[in-house]
């Protein structure tokens, strides 16, 4: 990724996304600013999904919630249009992926509710600032994400296994990464697992379910964080007649600063 994209103001990046000029993943984009996972559901499914988020704050940390039919999110950016400002969207019908598109304006309805969830890309900046090598950023790829055997707490029809994101670190670096990311509970907080991928149901660390493979050096082990792709598994199980999510790694970049989310 070019330094120009890394240092672009969020409003300018959203304009590039809206016009189709930028269609890549958003890892490393707009250094310093909060990125969000997204779920859009019909209003009659919203209460149960809100409860699912409340029951599972590690993978589903809620940043913002819209009123039905509202596609602008003023608290996160004055010019945001949720229908156009994410580089890639996934459309689901009855739990099945039916399309992947760059604009959902034609699909918009007055009964749709937008959920925006914290993203691990926000704490990545803090890891890099402390001198840690965040491999998906240094290798210029999407972060690797995996389905696990860890059960989420159900809410209504929403249930399923947790998805995790992975970044490799040597043992002493892993301790530092735990401490740093723990200051960001609203964007997944500290990791949930270190090393031994098979213990959480991951059979091949080199074959992520979402995102891209990254290199793991001989002295390093994988460190896993709860991931905001988890709701996509819950949506597949709940099978709402219609819903929309971001494509994994393709986030809404907001005007909120990562430092505003840090605690301690």
Give the secondary structure arrangement, pairings included.
Blueprint: H1 3-6, H2 10-19, E1 33-42, H3 43-55, E2 62-65, E3 89-93, E4 96-101, E5 112-118, H4 121-129, H5 135-138, E6 145-151, E7 161-169, H6 171-181, E8 193-194, E9 221-226, H7 230-238, E10 243-246, E11 252-257
Antiparallel strand pairs: 1-5, 1-10, 1-11, 2-5, 3-4, 3-10, 6-7, 7-9, 8-9
Helix pairs in contact: 4-6
Describe the structure.
α4 crosses α6 (171-181). Helices cover 23% and strands 25% of the residues. Strands 1, 2, 3, 4, 5, 10 and 11 form a seven-stranded antiparallel β-sheet that branches. It has a four-stranded antiparallel β-sheet with strand order 6-7-9-8. The model has no long low-confidence stretch (mean pLDDT 93). The protein is built from seven helices and eleven strands. The protein is of the alpha+beta class and 264 residues long. It has two domains: 3-120 and 240-260, 3-Layer(aba) Sandwich (PSTPO5379-like), CATH 3.40.1640; 126-226, PSTPO5379-like fold (2-Layer Sandwich). β3 (89-93) and β4 form a beta hairpin.
Fourth-tier CATH superfamily name of the largest domain: PSTPO5379-like
Shape: globular
CATH class of the largest domain: Alpha Beta
CATH-assigned fold name of the largest domain: PSTPO5379-like
Tell me about the biggest sheet?
7 strands, antiparallel
Content-based structural category: alpha+beta
The share of residues in helices is: 10-25%
In the CATH hierarchy, the architecture of the largest domain is 3-Layer(aba) Sandwich
- Tally of DSSP helical segments: 7
Strand segment count: 11
What number of domains?
2
Binned strand content: 25-35%
Measured between the Cα atoms of the first and last residue, the distance is: 31 Å
Instruction: Give the SSE order as H and E letters.
Output: HHEHEEEEHHEEHEEHEE
Unreliable sequence segments:
none
Average pLDDT over all residues: 93
Radius of gyration: 17 Å
């Amino acid at each position: 990724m070019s330094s120009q994209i890394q240092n672009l103001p969020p409003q300018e990046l959203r304009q590039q996304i809206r016009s189709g000029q930028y269609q890549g993943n958003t890892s490393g984009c707009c250094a310093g600013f909060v990125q969000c996972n997204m779920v859009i559901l019909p209003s009659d499914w919203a209460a149960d999904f809100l409860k699912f988020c409340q029951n599972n704050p590690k993978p589903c940390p809620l940043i913002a919630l819209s009123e039905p039919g509202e596609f602008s999110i003023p608290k996160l950016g004055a010019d945001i249009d949720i229908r156009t400002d994410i580089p890639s969207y996934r459309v689901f019908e009855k739990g099945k992926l039916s399309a992947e598109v760059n604009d959902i304006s034609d699909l918009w309805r007055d009964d749709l509710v937008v959920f925006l969830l914290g993203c691990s890309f926000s704490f990545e900046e803090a890891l890099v600032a402390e001198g840690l090598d965040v491999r998906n950023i240094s290798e210029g790829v999407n972060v690797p994400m995996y389905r696990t055997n860890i059960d989420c707490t159900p809410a209504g029809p929403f249930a399923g296994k947790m998805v995790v994101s992975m970044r490799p670190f040597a043992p002493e670096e892993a301790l530092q990464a735990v401490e740093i990311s723990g200051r960001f509970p609203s964007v997944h907080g500290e990791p949930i697992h270190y090393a031994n991928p098979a213990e959480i149901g991951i059979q091949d660390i080199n074959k992520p379910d979402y995102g891209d493979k990254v290199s793991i050096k001989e002295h390093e082990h994988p460190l896993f964080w709860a991931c905001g792709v988890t709701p996509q598994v819950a949506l597949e199980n709940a099978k709402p007649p219609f819903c929309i999510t971001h494509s994994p790694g393709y986030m809404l970049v907001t005007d909120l600063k990562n430092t505003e989310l840090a605690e301690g």
